[in-house]
Amino acid sequence: MKKGKVNPVMIIAVAVFLFGGLLAYWQYNVKEAAQARYQQLEAEVPTKEEVDAELAQTSQDLEKYRENLAHLEKSVPPQAYVPTMLSELESLGKLNRIAVTGVRPVAKQAQSRRDQENEQQNKKAYQEVEIDITGTGQYNDVMALVDQLKGFPKIVAVRTVSLTPKKEANAAAQGILESTIRLRAYVFAAPTPNNKPESGLQARADIHRGP
Fold first, then answer.
1. In Å, what is the CA distance from 119 to each residue of 127, 145, 155, 183, 200?
2. Is the model's pLDDT at 205 over the cut of 60?
């Protein structure tokens, strides 16, 4: 070999060594990243015990919701129960020392054809019935009735309470008020092809119309 001449075999050997080192370093980094990703995913994936526990909890929640739904359905009476419910509301008012003068459903306002079509498209399994309880009594008695309506066995919601002092001097001196309590009750609609609850409810209202 002449002095100063570079051996090409040596250059190739050095290049291969460097390339092999870089390749090994790159493979090591890829392996480390893959292992870190695997450990992260392994930590995120729930174990079989956790999945079984979550499934059991979901089943318990579902059963609880079914029981609550069944309880609510029992609290929604059929439409034929409305006269009885009106009588029960009247008795509840008298029980709270209210001189009940009327318990009657409120007739719905006339709807446009478009509103009727929308109602038919979004028809619910139950019907909302507005009921007015009118009578006279003292303020505390009226509020006691409102409070007891919250525990009424059927689903009713107090919408408004209107109080007006009576004009008679004796009644005013005793704190007697004229009261109107408007409720919203929920009843299952009658399963008939031409269901017209308004006329039926209005006929029942005549039975419970006070003086």
1. 11, 33, 22, 21, 19
2. no
Interval 42-87: pLDDT, tens: 777 777 787 788 888 888 887 876 776 665 556 556 667 788 888 9
Structure tokens at 79: 């439409």
CA distance 152 to 88: 9
CB 92 within 8 A of CB 142: no
Which tokens in the block code for residue 211?
């003086």
Are 87 and 208 a contacting pair, CB within 8 Å?
yes
The domain locations on the chain are 8-74, 79-207
Per CATH, the homologous superfamily of domain 79-207 is Ribosomal protein S6/Translation elongation factor EF1B (3.30.70.60)
Distance CA 40, CA 191 (A): 58
CA neighbor of 135 nearest in space, from 165, 93, 100, 106: 100
Q: Both tokens of residue 171?
A: 């009644």
pTM for the whole thing?
Answer: 0.52
Three-point CA angle 130, 136, 177, nearest 5°: 105
Output b/e per residue, 28-47; b: 16+ Cβ within 10 A. Answer: eeeeeeeeeeeeeeeeeeee
Question: How confident is the model over 123-182, as pLDDT tens digits?
Answer: 677 788 899 999 999 999 999 999 999 888 778 889 999 999 988 888 778 889 999 999
